[in-house]
Structure formats: C-alpha cells, structure tokens
Specification:
Elements lengths: L13 H20 L5 H5 L8 H23 L14 H18 L3 H9 L3 H19 L1 H8 L9 H4 L4 H27 L8 H28 L7
Helix pairs in contact: 1-5, 3-9, 3-10, 5-6, 9-10
C-alpha cells in the first residue's frame, strides 16, 4: 500500500522537501509544455477563444477522481493517508471570487505565474510580487476578516453525500459533465476563433468513451471490492 507523506507525517522532512521539489519542477514543466506559460493563452478562456485551461484541468480532475477511487478500493492507497480540505463556504466563496477577478485581470494563477516567471515573463513576475503583497495584507488584516475566515465551516464534507448520491453515481455523472464540456469547448472554439480541431475526431470520441467506460465500471468495481473486504458503506 502506498503511504503518503501526509499520512506518515513526513511533509516537514528532508525527504518531503526533496519530493516536493521534484514534483513541483515536474508539474511546472508540464504546465509550460501545455502552453500555460503564456498569460494570453490562459486569459483566452474568458473570451472563449481558447478553452485549453478548461480541457486540461477538467481532464486532470476526472483522471485523479477515477484513479483515486480505483486505487482506494484496490487497497493501493489508504484513504486515511489523504488530506481532505474542509468546507468553509464563506471563506471559499469570497476567496474564489477574489481569485477569479485576479485571474481575469492578471492572466495568471499562482502556479502558472511561477511558470511564467521561470520563463522570463515580466508580467508573471509582477503578478508574483502582487501575490506576496496580498499575502502580507491578508496577514495584517486577519483580525478584521477572521469572522469570514470561519464563516460556514462545515468540516470535511463530500459532494456526493451532500447530494444524497453514491460515490460511483456522482463520479459517473461528473464524468458525463466533463465529456459534455470537452465537446462543448470544441464547438465554442470553432464558432468563436475557427479552431476546435478535435471536434468530431476519432481521438475525442475514443477519449470520451474511455472516460465514460472507466466511470461506469465503478458501479461494479467498488461494490465488488467492498463486498470482498466486508466493508460495505451504506452511503455508497
């Protein structure tokens, strides 16, 4: 079974820092190769000219979601070794709005700005400087905004539980939404900028079918795995 650094309390160790460095550099390289080292390409999603951001990030989310469910049920990953972000609705809604406004105006998010700065982009450097300034402002004004920081704190909660759905059903539905977004993105790109080169191609059809098939298999796989281990979860 894979033991995470978080689960083994090794995040603040030399091994943890080394792995974080390797993963961070690798992630940055992948972002740069995906074209996320350009603020023009990143901000193009807000004008519906280039939907690469949506397609790449949604693919990452769906792949991670399906992969984690399989790995947990196979006993490869211990769910107790994962960190689950608590739901704090007030803070997260406010933070999301601020983040979105900054993304629209600056053309960067913190991760892609680091990639841009490493590539020598001046606007990315200024964005990073602004991020540090914002962090300092947050720290100095924390006493004033502390009520917002904990507003709507619901602890760790899961979307499928809140919706009264089983985990496989939610994963399947979310995958269908992702596939619809992939196809919709190609339609939008073709209509707005004349691109959308994957629209109707064998690749997009095969990719969509693969995602939906993997998600559909969760209904059978998760139930069989839990029956075999004697750990059936009534909520799933």
């Amino acid at each position: 079974m894979i033991e995470s650094l978080y689960g083994s309390d090794m995040l603040n160790t030399p091994k943890g820092f080394l792995l974080a460095y390797i993963i961070g550099v690798s992630f940055g390289w992948v972002l740069e190769r995906a074209g996320f080292g350009s603020s023009r390409r990143l901000s193009a999603i807000f004008y519906f000219r280039d939907m690469t951001v949506l397609k790449v990030m949604f693919t990452a989310v769906i792949t991670a979601m399906i992969g984690l469910i399989y790995c947990i049920n196979l006993g490869i990953i211990d769910p107790a070794g994962l960190y689950y972000m608590p739901s704090v609705y007030g803070a997260q809604i406010a933070g999301g709005l601020i983040f979105g406004a900054g993304f629209v105006m600056g053309g960067w998010c913190p991760g892609t700005a680091a990639v841009g700065m490493a590539s020598g982009k001046i606007d990315a450097f200024l964005f990073i400087v602004g991020s540090f300034a914002g962090s300092i402002l947050f720290n100095e004004s924390f006493s004033l905004i502390k009520p917002l920081y904990t507003m709507g704190d619901s602890g760790v909660s899961f979307a499928y539980s809140a919706l009264g759905m089983s985990q496989p059903a939610f994963a399947f539905l979310f995958t269908l939404v992702a596939v619809a977004c992939f196809w919709g993105s190609e339609y939008v790109e073709r209509a707005v900028s004349g691109t959308g080169e994957y629209l109707g191609t064998p690749f997009l059809k095969a990719f969509s079918l693969a995602l939906v098939s993997c998600a559909a298999m969760l209904f059978v796989f998760t139930g069989s795995a839990r029956e075999a281990s004697g750990e059936m979860d009534p909520g799933s």
